[in-house]
Specification:
- The model has no long low-confidence stretch (mean pLDDT 91).
- This protein is α/β, with parallel strands linked by helices.
- It has a 7-stranded parallel β-sheet with strand order 3-2-1-4-5-6-7, sandwiched between helices. A 6-stranded parallel β-sheet has the order 10-9-8-11-12-13, sandwiched between helices.
- The protein starts with a strand and ends with a helix.
- 36% of the residues lie in helices and 17% in strands.
- It has 2 domains: 4-174 and 336-351, Rossmann fold (3-Layer(aba) Sandwich), CATH 3.40.50.2000; 186-333, Rossmann fold (3-Layer(aba) Sandwich).
- Keywords: Transferase.
Length: 353
């Protein structure tokens, strides 16, 4: 066994997870040899791929293909650990089982607050989420040797379900402050009249992300502070339906390419993140890196990302109306350069077991 780490990313890796993996590679490449096991590498930058060995690209991007990719890799290599970083097409427990059968330790990155997702679901989805995440998902907790979480809330979730406290390690997600450019999209500064204060919502326009929650409160917020203007950035087929005069205080931007988001964060006076479920909240830190105040619902480990949180409706309304009183936080505390020693130390301890 060598100081070689394998990251399993499968075929359905979301943009945010790809970013995290690229940051992991950047932080660990000088200390470890790194393998990426995936069926599709098109979403990764050429700079990252130059620092890793690629495995699995000849297989199809589906469950059988992912299984063949990880099985083929493990039969030919003996990494010090296999890190599962995303919800792939292949169930995480299958990936972990394959690694364990080859004597390879498994690190499970608990990257979403999926154990509590059922609590904000409705109808048949509530039972479906509970069965998938809280029944079937228990297998991954049993099979993994170490669990990576973003903060204390997730650690409590996992330890209450049988994970050993010493094996649940808090590691906040890393960021590259230089990735976002503030002048990438000049139209970002025209989404609201110059005499208004821009409140930004970033995410899909669905109930889970707090879209309905925010829309329902816009009339009250406008009445309390007429200078507010709300911009919705993100996908979705629903638009805010509001009566006058609130309807004149809303702009639906739609989807924006990630590389242009910096300009929208820079243009905003406040980012609101009223999501009903969240593990951490990447957009919170990205807004902070642009020098923008943030306000988020206190769910998951959002409180690790920002101290400006709310629990009640009145707290939300009061905080938005008086947003200048919120703390202006420094997102560079999550700079990957600052977190690098912590990550290297974690994996050194893991490989020394």
């Amino acid at each position: 066994m060598t100081d070689r780490l394998a990251f399993f990313v499968g075929s359905t890796t979301p943009f945010n997870v790809r970013l995290d993996v690229q940051h992991y590679v950047w932080m660990l490449r000088e200390r470890f040899d790194i393998d990426l096991v995936a069926t599709d590498f098109s979403g990764f930058s050429s700079a990252v791929l130059a620092d890793v060995a690629q495995h699995g690209a000849t297989h199809a991007s589906n469950r059988p293909g992912e299984y063949r990719a990880v099985r083929e890799y493990l039969d030919a290599h003996d990494p010090a650990a296999l890190v599962h970083v995303t919800r792939s097409a292949l169930p995480p427990s299958v990936v972990a089982g394959a690694a364990k059968s080859n004597g390879v330790p498994v690190v499970y990155r608990y990257g979403s607050d999926e154990l509590y997702t059922y609590r904000v679901a409705s109808g048949w989805r509530k039972a479906g989420y509970f069965f998938r995440n809280n029944v079937l998902g228990r297998a991954m907790l049993r099979l993994s040797d170490v669990q990576m979480v973003f903060g204390p809330t997730a650690k409590r979730r996992l330890t209450s379900r049988g994970c050993e406290p010493d094996n649940v390690v808090e590691l906040p997600p890393p960021f590259d402050p230089g990735r976002l450019t503030m002048d990438g999209d000049s139209s970002a500064h025209t989404v609201a009249p110059r005499d208004r204060d821009l409140v930004l919502f970033v995410g899909r326009r669905i109930r889970y992300k707090g879209f309905d929650y925010l829309v329902e409160r816009i009339p009250e917020l406008i009445e309390s502070r007429p200078s507010l203007h709300f911009a919705f950035v993100g996908g979705g087929d629903r638009d805010p339906e509001l009566p006058p005069p609130a309807d004149d205080h809303v702009t639906v931007v739609g989807e924006v390419e990630p590389e242009f988001m910096g300009a929208y964060f820079d243009a905003a006076d406040l980012l609101v993140h009223p999501t009903l479920t969240e593990a951490f909240g990447r957009v919170i830190v990205e807004a902070q890196l642009a020098g923008t105040r943030t306000l988020a619902r206190d769910v998951g480990d959002v409180a690790v990302a920002t101290e400006n949180t709310f629990e009640t409706d009145q707290e939300f309304v009061d905080s938005v109306v008086s947003f200048e009183d919120l703390s202006l936080e420094d997102g560079t505390r999550f700079d990957r350069a600052k977190l690098k020693p912590e990550y290297v130390s974690f994996f050194e301890r893991l490989t020394a077991r």
